[in-house]
Amino acid sequence: MIYRPVRNIPVSQITPREMYLNRRSLMAGAGAALAAGMLPAPAFARLETKATAYGADLEPTAKEYVTGYNNFYEFGVGKEDPAANAGSLTTSPWSVEIGGLVAKPATLALEDIVPKVQEDRIYRLRCVEGWSMVIPWVGFQLSDLLAKVEPLGSAKYVAFETLVRPDEMSGQRGFFQPLDWPYVEGLRLDEAMHPLTILATGIYGEELPNQNGAPLRLVVPWKYGFKSIKSIVKITLTEKQPPMTWNIVLPNEYGFYSNVNPQVDHPRWSQASERVIGGGLLTERKPTLMFNGYEEEVADLYAGMDLKKFF
Ligand code: MTE
What we know:
The chain contains eleven helices and 13 strands.
């Protein structure tokens, strides 16, 4: 987010046409894509889900954008790097270590974390860089997982960590490291327990492509996208506010809360509006909504707080 200026390039200019046209033309173009060093998207397993009312009124962004325009610095800092490089990540077997201020600390295998039937939830995603998408997630409430380990009364925050595996994560290799690893994030316990906060294992009814944070990533729809940490291996309940990657890098620009707020600008750009990804070149910017449109559900969490101070 800081090493390159935000590029106002539509994904249509950075992705070969055959990658975002329909699947049939993708297959037809597969030879050319291979020759160009771009592998066609692999087929993903369907997940067992139940429909919910979340986002029933939202139109999802085309899958090609959701899976082709990503931020995942472990695989490079360019928007197209994660799709190009994340295929190398082994996501099975996978386990998550859950500990800290809990009665039942445990290292759980992914199969023991993910419910057999998950939920379809369509959420807005607003990146702090000023662009947005609508993503149809498959996931389950983080509160269900936290209940299994029984948080203690002294637990006030939840800390998350992404995998560190330089041999499979190209962005973690080499001389130039854009961030310190692991990527870390945190939530207040009541934010983590909120029904809107989910752990996602899929998009579009299928398992997550690696570039979207496979096999397990956080989704907190009323906060800027960087709070939604990918490929989680560790969850720790703490008494003190945990560190978070972008706050460590630039504390004046990225605060712990990072709630989407059109009235609190980033020091270097306005947050009043957003560029809708997939909307085409001529689409006007759209006004950004308070708490990304989830004000009714989450405003209570911040009652009485100065949101300029706790940005
Ligand atoms: N998680 C990790 N581990 N590393 C990252 O670089 N980028 C964040 C977030 N989670 C990031 C991450 C940012 S800035 C955004 S906007 C979202 O992931 C993007 O999610 P998406 O690529 O699935 O749209």
